[in-house]
């Protein structure tokens, strides 16, 4: 699974376990994230986000949000979003590949003829 930088912690409120995050890539409720700083690594799903005390379901690049965290984090910690690489191949691309193979006679196997 690939990881992509989703944000940076700019402040942490320990009494309410909320990190203030400068969002660098879109983040949604339910995304799996890792919060990393030095040897500290906290992994969790995004459960709650707010902007100006209002709950949101998606944070966009450039926004400053409040993110509920499951443990203590430090300022400057990087938040990485786990991204699943897709292996989807469309029918159109499969057909184009087959057509290209048929159209290129150089790649076709040559039959050896036996001479006696």
Q: What do you see in this structure?
A:
The chain is mainly beta and 116 residues long. It has a single domain, classed as Translation factors (Elongation Factor Tu (Ef-tu), domain 3), CATH 2.40.30. It has one helix and ten strands; from the N terminus they run E-E-E-E-E-E-E-E-E-E-H. The strands form two sheets. Strands 5-4-10-1-2-9-6-7 form an eight-stranded antiparallel beta sheet, with no helix packed on it. It has a two-stranded antiparallel ribbon with strand order 3-8. A hairpin with a 4-residue loop joins strand 1 and strand 2. It is elongated and about 90 Å long.
Helix coverage percent: 10-25%
CATH superfamily: Translation factors
Q: At the first level of CATH, what is the class?
A: Mainly Beta
Give the radius of gyration.
24 Å
In the CATH hierarchy, the architecture is: Beta Barrel
Low-confidence stretches: none
The helix/strand order is EEEEEEEEEEH
Integer average pLDDT: 85
Number of domains: 1
Report strand order across the widest sheet: 5-4-10-1-2-9-6-7
Largest sheet: 8 strands, antiparallel
**Structural class, from secondary structure content?**
mainly beta
CATH topology: Elongation Factor Tu (Ef-tu), domain 3
- What is the approximate shape? elongated
Strand content: 35-45%
The total count of helices amounts to 1
Number of strands: 10
Report the end-to-end length measured between terminal Cα atoms. 58 Å
């Amino acid at each position: 699974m690939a990881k992509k930088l989703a944000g940076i912690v700019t402040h942490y409120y320990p009494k309410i376990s909320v990190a203030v995050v400068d969002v660098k890539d879109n983040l949604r409720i339910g995304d799996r994230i890792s919060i990393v700083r030095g040897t500290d690594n906290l992994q969790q799903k995004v459960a709650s986000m707010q902007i100006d005390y209002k709950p949101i379901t998606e944070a966009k690049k450039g926004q400053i949000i409040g993110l509920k965290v499951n443990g203590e984090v430090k300022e400057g910690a990087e938040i990485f979003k786990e991204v699943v690489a897709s292996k989807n191949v469309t029918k159109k691309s499969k057909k184009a590949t087959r057509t290209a193979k048929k159209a290129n006679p150089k790649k076709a196997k040559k039959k050896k003829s036996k001479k006696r």
